[in-house]
Amino acid sequence: ATITVTTEDGSKTATCAVTVKAKFVAVTSISLDQTSLEMTEGEEISLTATVKPDNATDKAVTWTSDKTDVATVEDGKITAVKEGTATITAKAGDKTATCKVTVKKGFVEVTSITLDKTSISLTVGGEETLTATVKPDNATDKTVTWTSSSDAIATVTDGKVKAVKNGTATITAKAGDKTAKCIVVVSKSSVAVTSITLDKSSLSLNEGEEATLTATVKPDNATDKTVTW
């Protein structure tokens, strides 16, 4: 605005240019709608900052994270990066407000499980260990549960299969909701013949006469006790 002064007779004047600026209102406080957060890897949550007074000249908010490898922030939106703890700071004027962010590992589901063998043959009493591979490598819970379709034929503990009696059983490995199977065929163990004896070591027969020899095979549980004469 221009201020003008004029003499009474109107012959003389003087002026003054006046520039009026807005009054600077400083920020008195800043607050966040949440002061602590728990997040999982990959999750996003937005914070809201409130700056006072409402007529503060400059209400712009600057956001920072003290650990960007754990959590990042942009315009109040927090992104959880990896497991750990970070502090998010909002600043307006010379005032600040903080929010503590705790990031937990995200749940990574099992996508597959495989066994190093899909079928094995064992004799009674025999043992063999199966190895399970769970994918992905960073799956949250890679625990493998082992079961047998028939413990009477074959049992399994932590992948170790033990043959109990002849027959067929299916071994199942499960991780998450994924499964892998191995067919186990159990046969009787082979017991070798250790000896064979006859009930007579010599015979005297007349022409036309008959006699029967009896063979005894040992051990009694030999797998093949067939006698060839």
Strand content: over 45%
Number of contiguous helices: 0
- Work out the helicity level: under 10%
By DSSP, the count of extended strands is 22
Shape: rod-shaped
Average of pLDDT: 95
List SSEs in N-to-C order: EEEEEEEEEEEEEEEEEEEEEE
Class derived from helix and strand content = mainly beta
Low-confidence stretches: none
Could you tell me the radius of gyration in angstroms? 45 Å
- Distance between the ends: 137 Å
**How are the strands of the largest sheet arranged?**
4-11-10-7
Largest sheet: 4 strands, mixed
Explained architecture:
The protein has strands at 2-6, 13-17, 29-32, 36-40, 44-46, 49-52, 62-65, 71-74, 77-80, 84-92, 95-104, 112-115, 119-123, 127-129, 132-135, 145-148, 154-157, 160-163, 167-175, 178-187, 195-198, 215-218. With 229 residues, the chain is mostly beta strands. The strands form 8 sheets. The protein has a 4-stranded mixed sheet with strand order 4-11-10-7, with no helix packed on it. Strands 13-20-19-16 form a 4-stranded mixed sheet, with no helix packed on it. The chain has a 3-stranded antiparallel sheet with strand order 5-9-8, with no helix packed on it. Strand 19 (167-175) and strand 20 (178-187) form a beta hairpin. It is rod-shaped and about 180 Å long. The termini are far apart.
